[in-house]
Automatic annotation (TrEMBL):
It holds the Pfam family Trypsin. Keywords: Disulfide bond, Hydrolase, Protease, Serine protease, Signal. It comes from the Eukaryota. The keyword ATP-binding does not apply. This is CTRB2 protein. The keyword Protease applies. GO terms for molecular function: serine-type endopeptidase activity. Residues 1-16 form the signal peptide. One of its GO terms (biological process) is proteolysis. It comes from Branchiostoma lanceolatum. Residues 32-263 form the Peptidase S1 domain.
Length: 265
């Protein structure tokens, strides 16, 4: 009965997923570092993982009112004292009605490898459910085998420059990226890239940057007019070398794992 109820709940959320109330402001910038300010709450599934003293350290994405998806390497030993922040646009603003939710459980993929960055995915079970609305909503999950040919976007509070002393952006940043073929990505990243569980995106002549955005979402338009989260920021070239596109967890490859964890917990 528990499994049946959980799956029914997932279907309920999925029926209204991936469609923001406020449309994105799109001008075609191609990197979060050097990207552009997002329109307020135009990416309502964006999550910020923060310490108890409000320090942002990873991104994430809301996929259900009880669950956030992020990168496996974002797990910290004291995660019980950390929080997931939803509905945030300006990290320096004081008038936003954000939701600060504690983490009940962290489920990192059992085959995660910190050295090779394989299986770099984690589910966070929230202690209390997120209140869904205009500023906070779940994104859709892709099915295995889905093909996305529409526009794709990365979002996060990435550094607004490439120097070590640069700060995280105050306002949520967005950048439009192109999906890069597995062959092209392999030619650039070599053995680091595993096409069975990773994808690459960026402008081939401009690369991609990920500082401050580990675990953040790469979303693409789907056939229903909404957005699927097809990737989670996993790895990249630290100094934003144009030769190297950003590497993402291939979310569809883990769909069975995601469904199983959510159904049983």
């Amino acid at each position: 009965m528990k499994v049946s109820w959980a799956l029914a709940a997932l279907l309920t959320v999925a029926s209204g997923c991936g469609v923001p109330t406020y449309p994105a402001r799109t001008t075609g910038m191609t990197r979060v570092v050097g990207g552009e300010d997002a329109a307020p709450h135009s990416w309502p599934w964006q999550a910020s993982l923060q310490t108890s003293d409000n320090a942002h350290y990873c991104g994430g994405v809301l996929i259900h009112d009880d669950w956030v998806l992020t990168a496996g390497h974002c797990l910290r030993s004291d995660f019980e004292t950390h929080k997931v922040v939803l509905g945030e646009h300006d990290r320096n603003g004081e008038s936003e009605s954000i939701q600060e939710l504690q983490i009940e459980y962290a489920f990192r993929h059992e085959a995660f490898d910190f050295q090779t960055i394989q299986n770099d995915i984690m589910l966070l079970k929230l202690r209390t459910s997120a209140a869904l609305g205009d500023a906070v909503n779940a994104v859709c999950l892709p099915d295995q085998g889905d093909v996305h040919t529409g526009a794709c976007w990365i979002t996060g509070w990435g550094l607004n420059g490439t120097n070590a002393g640069d700060r995280l952006a105050g306002v949520l940043q967005q950048a439009e990226l192109s999906l890069i073929s597995d062959d092209d990505c392999s030619s650039r990243w070599g053995a680091v890239f595993n096409p069975s569980c990773m994808i690459c995106a960026g402008a081939v002549d401009k690369g991609g940057c990920m500082h401050g955005d580990s675990g953040g979402p790469l979303v693409c338009e789907n056939s229903a007019g909404g957005y699927d989260v097809i990737g989670l920021v996993s790895f990249g070239e630290r100094l934003c070398d144009p030769f190297y596109p950003t590497g993402f967890v291939r979310v569809a490859a883990f769909r069975d794992w995601i469904d199983q964890i959510m159904a049983l917990n």
